[in-house]
Structures are given as C-alpha cells and as structure tokens.
Amino acid sequence: MALQIWPLLVAALSGLAMALQGSINAALGKVIGLWESTFIVHMVGLLLVSLLLFVCKVGNGCLSDIPKAPWYTYLGGVLGVIIIYSVALAIPKVGAAPATTAIILAQVFTAGLVDHLGLFGLNKIPFNYYKVLGFFLMTGGAWLVLKR
User: Fold this and answer.
1) Is 43 within 8 Å of 32 (Cβ atoms)?
2) What distance in Å separates the CA atoms of residue 32 and residue 75, rounded to the nearest whole number?
3) H-helix or E-strand spanning residue 18
4) Who's near 81: CB < 8 A, 6+ residues apart?
5) How many helices (H) does the chain have, and how many strands (E)?
6) What does the pLDDT average to over 8-17?
7) What are φ and ψ of residue 70, in 5° steps?
C-alpha cells in the first residue's frame, strides 16, 4: 500500500481541528454547561452542513438513499455526542495535551482493531509486528507526555 500524501494531510488537519475543538468546547462548557455546549456544537454543525448541502449545493450523494444504509452507520451521531461531551469534560480536568494523548492512543488501538477485523465493510488490514511495535512506541511516548 503506497502512502498517499493528500489524504494524510487532510487527516492531520482533522487532528489539528479535533485538538482545537476539544479545547474550545471545554471553554464553552465552562460557561453554559457540558450538555448545553454539546447541543450548541451540534446545532452549529447542523447549520453549517445544511448551508453547504442546500445552499452551496456541495456533495454528490443522495439523501433519498438513507434507507439503504445499514442501521449501524447511523450511530455516528450518537458517537459524536459521546465524543463532544467526554472531551469537553476531560480537558479542563487533565489538560488538552494529556486528554488528546489518551484520545489518540484509544483511536489508534480501536482503528487497528477495525482494520484487522475488517469491520463495517472496510478491507482487512491485519496487524503485523511493525504495527504492534508502533503502538507500543506510541504508548511509551504517551507515557512521556503524561509524566509530570
């Protein structure tokens, strides 16, 4: 599998946005409450994506195909609420870097399992020694980041 730079840069941008979002959501949560900030974040997101879909006409999908998707593909909204709430809860208590470190480790481990098992219709990408070693090295790096 050849490395594709553009998707990796987009993914890195996503990571940057997630780190900023968590800190911003935590700040909002301190002012209006965690559940309230989770609601506002999703409402602002809904307004933006509505504008993009219906006014700017971006997207090449078809909303009438909604019933064709497997039931579990709709759990992203539930996971989004869990993510927004838990990150906004964790960051003020432990800090942005430690919370993000825990998030990244859990993401990489879970993503590795998803790849290895080929869940959700994705191609199977089995674990190998390099990936296991990489995860342990990340864990060691996380320990160093979290060490006071």
Assistant:
1) no
2) 26
3) helix 5-32
4) 38, 42
5) 5, 0
6) 87
7) -60, 150
Q: Provide the 10 A C-beta neighbour count for residue 37.
A: 21
Taking the model in full, what pTM does it have? 0.81
Query: Going by C-beta distance under 8 Å and a sequence separation of 6 or more, which residues neighbour residue 32?
Result: 40
Position 137 scores a pLDDT of: 94
pLDDT at residue 148 in the model: 74
User: Look-up: residue for tokens 């480790």?
Assistant: 105
Each residue's pLDDT tens digit, 29-56? 999 999 999 999 999 999 999 999 999 9
- Quick one: tokens of 105? 């480790």
Q: Tell me what the mean pLDDT of segment 100-109 comes to.
A: 90
Q: Other C-beta atoms within 10 Å of 23: how many? A: 18
